[in-house]
Amino acid sequence: MYRSHTCGELRLEHVGTNVTLAGWVQRSRDLGGMTFLDLRDRYGITQLAFNMESNPALCEQARKLGREFVIQIDGQVIERSSKNKNMPTGEVEILVTALKVLNAAKLPPFTIEDETDGGDELRMQYRYLDLRRGPVQQKLRLRNQVALETRKYLDSKEFLDVETPVLIKSTPEGARDFVVPSRMNEGQFYALPQSPQTFKQLLMVSGFDRYYQIVKCFRDEDLRADRQPEFTQIDCEMAFVEQNDILEMFEGLIKHLFATVRGVQFEEAFPRMTYAEAMERYGSDKPDIRFGMEFVDLTKLAQSKDFVVFNSAECVLGINVEGASEFTRKQLDELTEWVKRPQIGAKGLVYVKCNTDGTFKSSVDKFYTEQDLQAMAAQAQAKPGDLLLLLCGDLAKTRKQLNELRLHLGTELGLRDPNVFKPLWVLDFPLLEWDEESGRYHAMHHPFTSPKPEDFHLIDTEPGKVRANAYDLAMNGVELGGGSIRIHDRALQSRMFDLLGFTKEEAQAQFGFLMSAFEYGAPPHGGLAFGLDRLVATMGGSESIRDYIAFPKNNSGRDTMIDAPSPLNDAQLKELGIKLN
After folding, report:
1. Are residues 298 and 224 in the same domain?
2. pLDDT (tens digit, 9 = 90+) per residue, 197-226?
3. Would the pLDDT of 145 be above 70?
4. Which domain holds residue 70?
């Protein structure tokens, strides 16, 4: 037996008990007559005491131990004379009677502490060491809790956990596929699934009316802090349902998870907003509604004068930053430079200060009278002490830029509390979006999303105006998940492929199996998938998903710990029938 108790278990009621502990040496302190070690495992830390007077040989042995040595000790639990209220085990310590080194350790390249001195790349290279740190282990425990409670909830609602294949056919779903060569079928390739989309639809055709899977998905796309080439979905599908059935079912899941894992109760139904409204009010299909600063359309008022910049723009949009009229010229110049960065792309920023004395001060004073600025303030419902910030240009670009500015100010002003959670259903996305480069429509979600029945008549004449029977759940400016009611009719699915520019031959080659299945009695069905990594990160109050994944990739898609991806040797390439240029 390596241990009788864990390092986070012992309390005052254990005083007098003989115990055996095992773990890693966190730190040591030599006080002359006494030596103290902190012993750590994933459950906590316990202080070990070695007495030079009563056992000098054991004390000398303890002094030679370095950080991260793996040891086993025997000893008696005693009450600490100097208690540490910041540690769960801080009222006791172990008077050690026997010590065994299970494994010596090199000095780690960074400190294994809650606040470490290791940078991101170094910690990713030695991820197995980084995983020993308390905050990282806590994040993975949160992930485990969320997965466990997800299974409990879905099982209680009669969902079946069904595995789908990992080696599949390459089909266009919006991102590039990762492909895998088939040695037994030279010149042919599998793809790793971007999602189990077609398989879960086939399960509905098969009569499994409630499916779920916590499943790995793969997309070969450019990475950001909130993306990984491989990620995990809570993937769900239901048959004989309409949109509202799905929203209620999975709103229930999110409420269950927050109640059981975070102790957060959502008493009210989640608010709902159309895509068009979200874009008009926030410039985002995943708006952060923890704070205000909703967009105000000032185009008519701003274009009534001789300011050429506004007059030549498609739109002039603004936000009201409450209580910010005291921003200094330096702060306003910094905001102007911030929106002009290449990542944002604005050409400039106009401000209107609503001074506390009722007067107005603007960066475009020479073009607008006091009454003009007052009219803008009234349109934005600005009060004395508020600050209006205006951007102009193309509607889509200006909305995107103003959304970034809004989020930036929300962060800077402390309005985005990570412990406040504001969910929002966003509904009625466009079915299609026009791609200038390819000169054709692309599915905004995927090719299997059903149009809203009331928009069917627009498919042939104005396809860009057709709304999808699709929905996303956003929270705190993050998309937690999304889905749609699927097409279950072969004729409509065929028409969708036509709209997306597939030839009959291409559609048959790519999706013939699904089209064939629809001929054998496909039920109405729909589903939703939550990004598990992103959901857990949001619940944990983090913006990045990386620390909630045990072995993540960096922003170049590399695993620096195992050095992957890596080249294949010539023999492997020859066996696979692959030649590299």
Report:
1. no
2. 999 999 999 999 999 999 999 999 877 667
3. yes
4. 12-103
